[in-house]
Design brief:
The chain is built from 14 helices and twelve strands. By secondary structure, it is an alpha+beta fold. The longest helix is centred in the middle third of the chain and has 38 residues. About 2% of the residues have low confidence.
Amino acid sequence: MNLAYDSLPAIYDVSFSDEKWVSTLDAVSAAAGAKGAMVFGLSEAEFVYRLDFASSYYTDKLQALPEFMERFGHYDQYGREFLMKAEPNMPISDLDIWPGEDLWNRGDMVFLREHINAFLRIGVNLSPSHGWKAGLILHLPEDLAVPSDESFAAAGFLSPHLGKSIEMNRFFYQLYERYRMVVAALDKVRLGISIATSSGEIVVSNSSAQRAIENSPSLLLDQHNRLRSPNRDIAEWIEYHIRQAAPDEGLPAASSATLHLPANGHREPLLLEVSSVREDEGLMSRGARGAIIYLIDPHDAPEIDVQMLTLLCGFTPGESDVAELVLQGLSADAIAQTRNVSRNTIKTQIKSIFAKAAVKTRGELVRKAAAISPPIY
């Protein structure tokens, strides 16, 4: 039974990932004295989650599978249906499914001996009472006329753990699929959006944000995927404002903070704004803690239509033009140079734009404009 205990860590390795199924099933096979092990599974609710993995023993034997299924698939289907009706975590063998039959000379068993070098199988129903079905199949050595008690015991001992690991695998599969859906949706937005924990670790980032970080000499991600900067002042600013936006439970979140980051050569500075996720209940739950980081690269700026914002906020033609440049991430100096007016004039116009739009920062203006006219591919 030592091998069965020793294989438990390998079984739980697949709770969070499918990458270790082969080594896990190798360990299960060895613990049960089998030549090979397979698992299969299907979600009854969504018909999306599927499980179908095998140990390394079958690597050079897969070419025999199509012929086996074509000639003997009806036996395989009946056996799996029988297994799925069996009591969960109770090992059964081919002798239980087809009592009294001459299995040694039956065509499918002859095929298994000749092509898989195995004979009898032990199966275990790993399914819970609802939601999804899963099973374990162990191929035993071809010289065994009856499965050993040790094989049955190991299969019975390991099956509840394997079932729990599959249940966790399915749960994390669903989370991962939802995560992918969120990222896919964010990637449709031409506005750089990242979500960070209080430590600065980026947990979600759309492609626009990734490009902005990669193209900025002032930003980088460290080995822990935390947003950092080679510039000490900028690094301290980022760390401080992310921490303020994502405070400990019970503490109020600070208001948004905006910074223009130096760029390479004559490129316009990158606009970075840090705000709390609590300011936008549409993105995360009310009790969540974290920071939303908005990044706008003027050279990869989102094409936000300013016309509807102008209409709703009553901007003058000049303010509308300035608002469009603000939404592109340009600094006040760059806007003044573009419009050939003084910086003070631009600052006055931006102040008026903020007042009419009922916002306090550039990031809030971007979010408001994006909500009215989403910059979606």
